[in-house]
Amino acid sequence: MRKNRARGGWFATILFTVISIFYVSPLFIVLINSFKKKAFISKEPFALPSEKTLVGFENYMNGIEKYGFLKAVGWTLFITVCSVVVILVCTSMCAWFITRVRSRLTQGIYLLCVFSMVVPFQMVMFTLSKTTDTLHLNTPWGLIIVYLGFGAGLAVFMFCGFVKSIPLEIEEAAMMDGCSPLRTFFSVVLPIMKPTYISVGILETMWIWNDFLLPYLTLDLEHYKTISIAIQYMQGSYGRVDMGAIMACLVMAIIPIIVFYLSCQKYIIKGVAAGAVKG
Question: What is the mean pLDDT of the chain?
């Protein structure tokens, strides 16, 4: 039995190592091509840079200076940070209200939030584009509101599951000591919800940072571009594509979110497990 388990363990290790290599290989290919001349990226995409093909950081400088990549990073960072903060605060308060105030209204709000995760985005994308233009939400500040609407479903679902595990007596004791509902939430409930806050924050950050479709449909692209849109616009007219700058900008876009995920991944399972408690 022990030998069989050991063989099974080694087999699983080898299998998942091979799968991991397949998943990581595209990132490695993008990295090595970001240091090549444009002509050799299409001709020799899998070859390592050599003296003939190496251009150093020229592609990175072109992406920053020629295509305004840093401005796109600034807008992406602003939209991501503000959207995640708004989503966390609003949805956690909504989940607390839904869980503690049992009524048909709160149950209807909860069902709508859960239902929003099921509806395909393609069903609302054209209506969304028209609505944002009509309401003048085609700015980074308006996009934050749009992200709140689309990110609320998963966040409310996870926060509701966690709030059910919080003993009601803690909140009752705080209110008996004179705390208002808002003070009870921010002073008592919010610190307890930290694992789910971190988990939801990580998931929402990765989604918003890498998102292309929502900014493309809502933003005024003449004035505002996120990273994904800026990279897409590096494809010029008549089929001209600056592959070197695209590869370099992809690397610069990927590195921050990978570092963020690796530094926070240990909190994801903890937060998801905490939010999966049944009340």
Answer: 85
